[in-house]
Amino acid sequence: MKKTAASKKSATADKTSAPEKASAAKKSAAPEKASAAKNSAAANKASAAKKAPAAKKAPALKRQAPAKKPAVAPKKATAAVKGVAPAKTVAPKPPRGESRTALVRRARRIDRELAEVYPYAHPELDFENPFQLVVATVLSAQTTDLRVNQTTPALFAKYPTPEDLAAAVPEEVEEILRPTGFFRAKTRSVIGLSKALAEDFGGEVPGRLEDLVKLPGVGRKTAFVVLGNAFGRPGITVDTHFQRLVRRWRWTEETDPDKIEAAVGALFPKSDWTDLSHHVIWHGRRICHARKPACGACPIAPLCPAYGEGETDPEKAKKLLKYEKGGFPGQRLKPPQAYLDAGGKPALPLGAG
Fold it and tell me: Counting C-beta atoms within 10 Å of the first and last residue's C-beta, which end of the chain has fewer, N or C?
């Protein structure tokens, strides 16, 4: 059959509209697919968010100061005491595995350095004979040598010998010793040791350790002070300053005074013991204080493992110096001439100033 003209036109129209329809279909499907993709991505994100634990917001970072460059301890800070400030530094700590030989060398070098700084070091208790020294040393417990030196002139003026003090009225002695603290216990000790000296040693202070420690109130520390300074026999005086410094310097980790004495004594010749005690104690009182060491004015800074525990700023450290290093009077009312020649000043009597 022959197709009519109308059917031909309809077929032609169908052929020409097919691509247009396909194009329109594609255009219509594109946004639908994009919308579906977006919805799918959103769903995936939501699912992942549910599965993953909630993360805390990170706190805002604070601005940190730039790290300080490591510094090396000054080669020698002796000049700091004389007016020239050392560098503001931190000394490296010696290794924990320091050999015995290295420890001995370092300890002896510290003592040599201190001997240069304190060539006039001496016992800081005023005394004219062994009896006065043993009494003054007993009284120095829990107080300063300065306070003892300000108190003993009145005591020895009234009781110049062991026999005199042994026969004293305790209440009268207590009144004299009141400024030293613990005056009742100290009165019992000095009267008791005076009686022992009068009855057992003929009124003379014995020159042997085993005899001295038998006296009331006299321990090894007091005995070594007397032996070293009244009889010239070597001994190590382990007082609070000595204990603090030798531990800071890592000469020993012992805490018992007798063990400290043995440990430190093994590092030095016996002939050095008395002067060593003076050097260490003087340094502890003047520069290496218990609470705030004047590290910035310390002459042994390069050798000290504890450098930096105290004030390292040279100018601030100078203000912490005591006694002659800080321009102040010493502890003795009657110091040796060598101390006066070095610029030291005698202390003032009790109640003066």
Answer: N
